[in-house]
Amino acid sequence: MKKIQQHVMVFIMLLSAFSASAYAAQYAEGKQYTQVSETASSKAEVREYFSFYCPHCFRFEPFMETVKKNLPTGVKFERNHVDFLRAASPKIQAMLTKSVVVAEQLGMDKKLIGAVFKYIHIQRAVITTEKDIRNIFVLNGADGEKFDKLMKSFSVNSKAKLMKKHQETMSQKRAITGVPAVIVNGKYRINTQELDKDNFEQDYQNLVAYLLTLK
């Protein structure tokens, strides 16, 4: 049994090496992806910079869920809400950044993030206070008291500040000038306009898989 497991592991390693080699011939720095930092993140990750006010982000959301589901074991998918769009005040956008973290901590991020997107882009409603966000969450199954506590919690505020820091760092590097933007391992930005339009989803996922192998 032990020998069989060893053979399986060797096969997987060879298959991964073959895939990386094949992708290396297909993807080029400066074309399908751009290196935006000299150093990579300490842990493997795919980070999506987005805004609830961005219609492209709204349309992209279902696909990003697919990308998230297909990531290799141990690779984290991070949503990073930004606050530089002009559709709302920085204060409201900061609240929405915190709401993303709350949704994740409630374990309802897919449903609640989708609900906020629909509130803005389908219902054409306007968020003016934290109470508006709370109502969206409660109407979609979240506990109102838990929402209130989490919005004030140290963990949520710390994670929201970290999102802001990532945003500022990448903005300073001119790595993100708009959204949605996806950066792999804190080092490589995906250039969606250079991907195969006839096979976009598979090409995108293959590129993510390749970039995760780079240092």
Question: Can you walk through the features of this model?
Answer:
There is one protein chain. This protein is of the alpha+beta class and 215 residues long. The chain has one domain (2-211): Glutaredoxin, CATH 3.40.30.10. The chain is built from 8 helices and 5 strands. Strand 2 (45-50), helix 2 (55-69) and strand 3 form a beta-alpha-beta unit. Helix 3 packs antiparallel against helix 4. It is globular.
Task: Summarize this structure briefly.
This protein has 215 residues and is α+β, with helices and mostly antiparallel strands. The chain has helices at 2-26, 55-69, 90-105, 109-121, 130-139, 144-152, 154-172, 200-211; strands spanning 33-35, 45-50, 76-81, 181-184, 188-190.
User: How many distinct beta strands?
Assistant: 5
**CATH-assigned fold name:** Glutaredoxin
Q: How would you state the average pLDDT, rounded?
A: 92
CATH architecture: 3-Layer(aba) Sandwich
Q: Write down the oligomeric state.
A: single chain
Q: Specify the CATH class.
A: Alpha Beta
Instruction: Look at the structure and name the CATH superfamily.
Output: Glutaredoxin
Shape: globular
**DSSP helix fraction:** 55-70%
Q: Compute the gyration radius: what is it? A: 19 Å
Class from helix and strand fractions: alpha+beta
Count helical runs: 8
**Strand order in space, largest sheet:** 1-5-4-2-3
Domain unit count: 1
Distance linking N and C termini: 34 Å
What fraction strand? 5-15%
Largest sheet: 5 strands, mixed
